[in-house]
Amino acid sequence: MVRSIKNRNKARRKNNSNRSSNNGEASSSSVAAAITGVSAPARVWQPGVDAMEDGEELYCDTSAYNSLHGFQEGWPCLSFDIVRDSLGLIRTEFPHTIYVVSGTQAEKVTDNSIEIFKLSNISGKRRDLVPKKSADGSDMDSDDDSDDDSDEEERGSGGPSRKVAHQGCINRIRSMPQSPHICATWGDTGFVQIWDFSKHLNFLAESESSAGGKDSTIFKQAPLSIFKHKDEGYAIDWSPLVPGRFVSGDCQNSIHLWEPESGTKWNVDKKPFVGHAASVEDLQWSPTEANVFASASVDKNIAIWDTRLGKSAAASFKAHDADVNVLSWNRLASCMLASGSDDGSFSIRDLRMIKDGDAVVAHFTYHKHPITSIEWSPHEASTLSVSSADNQLTIWDLSLERDEEEEAEFKAQTEDKVNAPTDLPPQLLFVHQGQKDIKELHWHVQIPGMIISTAADGFNVLMPSNIETSLPANGA
Predict the structure, then answer these.
(1) pTM for this prediction
(2) With 0-12 CB in 10 A as exposed, 13-18 as middle and 19+ as buried, what is 28?
(3) DSSP H helical segments within 213-301, as ranges?
(4) pLDDT tens digits for 410-457?
(5) Strand ranges of the sheet holding 214-219, from the earlier edge strand across to the other edge
């Protein structure tokens, strides 16, 4: 598992340089890379496949996005989470505002902190959730032409932030879905801690959205609860069904269950769940069964656990030929479990078929470097996003199939404009490039089509123009 940020000091210097030279906005290197041409047809560039020739440059085709933004927060961030807010359950109108919690990867233990920040004025092209009908009854593109149609990157202004001191690097951070101000951190010191960030989030909510609103103060705050594992780890997850229920897994194969005693106290079961032969890399609670969760391990296996059945796994199976780095349990189709491996492959399993043997319904080897993050869309059951150490973030729609007639028609229409690869999987919906050493991604539950990613050179906020949803337009 490729976990750490490469060259943290170099990344931080670059981030600070970008921030000072662009007034907090992203540099050209922090956005997605696609090819546009001037005198010849554009060629889509594939990392690991294509080589850069002398004189060639990569350009970003911003027309592929409804919105695209980049920003840095000082030290590189290995993990972050989107904090659910009260601005609307389903939001489609620009500009957007988002709240994020993140953790640093500083060189010195004492330089680390948890950062809570608000990013406001995220602009972009408006797109209706349900396409409008033309006079003849056909679907019309709902892009709002009133927005800026230039090829320049759309950029939002950074907002105020608050920092809380944290001893050691933060391997992973997660916000509780039912109480977003409650967050958990996994530190490289071996401690899992639970925090209450309500006062910081309230401060941000009341603060003006200005680029100069960052507070350099690092607040000293005691966690609500703390537990020491035998080793450091990366795997944590909050139950989506039982508020406060929580699991944490470490690099010595132990998984501990946390049960809430109250809103501010947790009881940690000292006797761990044990079944893996190596490090537990990721954990995911079932979206429909309150006592069931899944784990991924360096031992190449995925295990399914039921807290009512003791400390042994209810089921375990080999999932990949290399370390299983990440998991995502589909919230909209609860029988589907996605996993990503160190060999660059990712798989989709139908858990209803486990007893029958091979439960794999899809397996992709597009990425050639370790999968670092995987997550199902919260709005489309067949869509998921994947990030890899090959510096790509990809979006997939498993409902798509190859249509040779449609492909031939598309090629005839675009052959003088773009030279596109012909061997891409039909399920590959979008490729986002430009970030270096991508570590984690999340869909925004309240803003359909928005994805946020973190990498060694900062964050990206993106909304691809070809990501649509069937949610009703009045869902906000």
Answers:
(1) 0.86
(2) middle
(3) none
(4) 677 766 666 667 778 999 999 999 999 999 999 999 999 999 999 999
(5) 77-83, 96-104, 113-122, 158-165, 214-219
